[in-house]
Write a structure and sequence with these properties.
One of its GO terms (molecular function) is methyltransferase activity. One of its GO terms (biological process) is methylation. Keywords: Methyltransferase, Transferase. Helices cover about 35% and strands about 25% of the residues. The chain is α/β, with parallel strands linked by helices. The protein has helices spanning about 5-15, 35-40, 55-65, 85, 110-125, 145-155, and strands at about 25, 45-50, 75, 90-95, 125-135, 160-165, 180-185. Helix 5 links the parallel strand 4 and strand 5 (about 125-135). The chain has one domain (about 5-185): Rossmann fold (3-Layer(aba) Sandwich). It has a seven-stranded mixed β-sheet with strand order 3-2-1-4-5-7-6, with helices on both faces. Helix 5 runs parallel beside helix 6 (about 145-155). Bound molecules: S-adenosylmethionine (SAM).
């Protein structure tokens, strides 16, 4: 028995809630690893919407998808706080790798307020049984502020509608990333 590492566990959660033909969201496309993973999960009949605020990330993600022959994703140069402008279908699952793009400008980072706006919109779009996975990196400048803002927000979500899990190795050095997963368990009343 080996405990699943953070990235591996994020993928396990997404695999459990996303079926072929469904819609998935990558809130932080970056170099496109998660977008590709989601595109393969939903298959040709499904669709992925991927967001990033950096052109470099959009180009890297589009190239990765092309290299793997995937044409079932829309890669958008816009912030995830605008998800509801682009996504109108029910969403089966989503992932956000928070922080900065490795190998790029470390001052361009995700921020608590926009991450929370994105989560709020996604919770509305999410199917019952769908999951939003946040991989929280908090070692960089601004990382702890975002971590704390996001944790405050997700801890306050009503458990009748959303189950919130934290998955974390607690004896590792250097601010290791951890997972927060939100499972929608009941449709919100209008
Ligand atoms: C840790 S990286 C993502 C890594 C990516 N998942 C991968 O597989 O390579 C975080 C990304 O979030 C992006 N980002 C920052 N603010 C954002 C926002 N408001 N909306 C969408 N992406 C944002 C950054 O540009 C950066 O590329």
């Amino acid at each position: 028995m080996k405990l699943q590492r953070v990235i591996q566990y994020a993928q396990t959660l997404l695999t459990q809630c996303i079926e072929k033909g469904e819609v998935a969201v990558d809130g932080t496309a970056g170099n496109g690893h998660d977008t590709l993973f989601l595109a393969q999960l939903v298959g040709d009949a499904g669709h992925v919407y991927a967001f990033d605020v950096q052109k470099q990330a959009i180009d890297a993600t589009s190239e990765r998808l092309f290299e793997h022959g995937m044409s079932n994703a829309t890669v958008l140069l816009d912030g995830h706080e605008n998800i509801a402008k682009y996504v109108h279908q029910e969403v089966a699952g989503a992932i956000f790798n928070l922080g900065y793009l490795p190998g790029a400008d470390h001052t361009i980072v995700t921020k608590g307020n926009t991450t929370i706006l994105a989560i709020e919109q996604l919770l509305q779009l999410l199917k019952v049984g769908g999951i939003i996975v946040l991989v929280i990196y908090h070692g960089h400048d601004g990382g702890k502020e975002e971590r704390d803002e996001v944790l405050r927000f997700v801890s306050s979500l009503p458990q009748k509608y959303v189950h919130v899990l934290r998955y974390e190795f607690i004896n590792q050095k250097n601010d290791p990333p951890f997972i927060v997963a939100l499972e929608k368990v009941k449709q919100f009343s209008k």
